[in-house]
């Protein structure tokens, strides 16, 4: 019996789905299923009832969830204990949503690095904020940069707003809007916008923005696969003359595909038209390691006390 099999069991128990559990562990379902089957043979009984599109715990499986979770939590603490005994500092384990502007993710990684002198190589990028929740709750992650509102975790997570980054309209350089200093949402009614296929959690975070668009009758959209402002989106804007919304962070040293000379970016002047991001952590897990708790607090204070000039603190 090894930790890999216990990790596989707990992932399936949490997700109640072999496919989602495999995705969470960055593996395919087949080896995950084999690990669970091997564990069942070692324990002498079934851990799950496997039905079509449904997985349920057996009584033995239910009885083992708590003990296995505690074993894995304690095993996860061993590197930190060993590092502390050697006089070393364990790097913070952090994650950020891929839907946040790169400039903000970079600022987040730099703030985390300053708390312990480590590089940002430990940063994990995730598409859906819901994928971060298990890692924060079981202690595999210490801190995350996510869109708000924070994922629902039955009160297990703490969240502090960082800033609201404004959104702008990106169009082709020869578009009638190009050259404008700003534009209102009312002026965009009737335009067709192209957007990425958005995960459910990001959709929830965009609820206020979506309401503002609906009220302004900006409702004509087409969806494509790909990241916001990515190659797929920029191709639709360039070849078909569509428009799209992109983060507006003037002064950022990071280039964008939606930059001149092929494209023009026009800030939206409507107050509050932007996305909220914040810092999320599990106080119970972080509080078990005083040094980790101190550094998480330092990173949160460093960011929330000094938001990017282009953004406004979330109120």
End-to-end Cα distance: 50 Å
How many helical elements?
A: 11
| Extended strand count | 11
CATH architecture of the largest domain: 3-Layer(aba) Sandwich
- SSE string: HHHEEHEHEHEEEHHEHEEEHH
Domain HTH lysR-type: 1-58
Protein name: LysR family transcriptional regulator
Keywords: DNA-binding, Transcription, Transcription regulation
Family: Belongs to the LysR transcriptional regulatory family.
Description:
By secondary structure, this protein is an alpha/beta fold. It folds into 3 domains: 3-85, Winged helix-like DNA-binding domain superfamily/Winged helix DNA-binding domain (Arc Repressor Mutant, subunit A, Orthogonal Bundle); 94-162 and 277-304, D-Maltodextrin-Binding Protein, domain 2 (3-Layer(aba) Sandwich); 168-274, Periplasmic binding protein-like II (D-Maltodextrin-Binding Protein, domain 2). Helices cover 39% and strands 20% of the residues. The chain has 11 helices and 11 strands. The strands form 3 sheets. Strands 3, 4, 5, 6, 9, 10 and 11 form a 7-stranded mixed sheet that branches. Strands 1-2 form a two-stranded antiparallel sheet. The protein has a two-stranded parallel sheet with strand order 7-8. Strand 1 (48-51) and strand 2 (54-57) form a beta hairpin. Helix 1 (3-15) packs across helix 2 (18-24) and helix 5 (102-114) crosses helix 11 (290-304). The longest helix is centred in the first third of the chain and has 27 residues, at 59-85. The radius of gyration is 22 Å and the shape is globular. The chain starts with a helix and ends in an 11-residue tail after the last helix. This is LysR family transcriptional regulator. It comes from Streptomyces mexicanus.
């Amino acid at each position: 019996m090894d930790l890999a099999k216990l990790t596989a069991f707990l992932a399936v128990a949490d997700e109640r789905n072999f496919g989602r559990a495999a995705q969470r562990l960055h593996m395919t379902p087949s080896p995950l299923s084999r690990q669970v089957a091997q564990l069942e043979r070692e324990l002498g009984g079934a851990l799950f009832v496997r039905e079509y599109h449904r997985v349920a715990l057996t009584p033995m499986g239910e009885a083992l969830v708590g003990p296995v979770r505690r074993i894995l939590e304690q095993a996860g603490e061993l590197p930190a204990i060993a590092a502390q005994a050697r006089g070393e500092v364990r790097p913070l384990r952090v994650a950020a949503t891929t839907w946040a502007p790169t400039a903000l993710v970079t600022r987040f990684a730099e703030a985390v690095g300053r708390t312990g002198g480590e590089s940002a190589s430990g940063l994990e990028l995730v598409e859906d904020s819901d994928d971060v929740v298990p890692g924060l709750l079981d202690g595999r992650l210490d801190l995350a940069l996510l869109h708000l509102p924070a994922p629902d975790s039955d009160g297990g997570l703490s969240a502090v707003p960082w800033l609201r980054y404004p959104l702008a309209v990106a169009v082709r350089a020869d578009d009638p809007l190009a050259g404008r200093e700003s534009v209102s949402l009312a002026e965009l009614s009737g335009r067709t916008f192209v957007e990425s296929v958005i995960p459910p959690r990001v959709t929830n975070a965009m609820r206020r923005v979506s309401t503002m668009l609906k009220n302004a009758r900006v409702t004509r959209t087409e969806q494509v696969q790909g990241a916001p402002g990515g190659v797929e989106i920029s191709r639709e804007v360039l070849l078909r003359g569509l428009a799209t919304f992109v983060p507006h962070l003037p002064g950022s040293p990071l280039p964008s595909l939606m930059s001149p000379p092929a494209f023009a970016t026009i800030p939206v002047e409507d107050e509050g038209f932007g996305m909220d991001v914040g810092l999320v952590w599990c106080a119970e897990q972080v509080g078990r390691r005083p040094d980790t708790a101190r550094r998480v607090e330092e990173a949160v204070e460093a960011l929330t006390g000094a938001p990017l000039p282009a953004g406004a603190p979330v109120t």
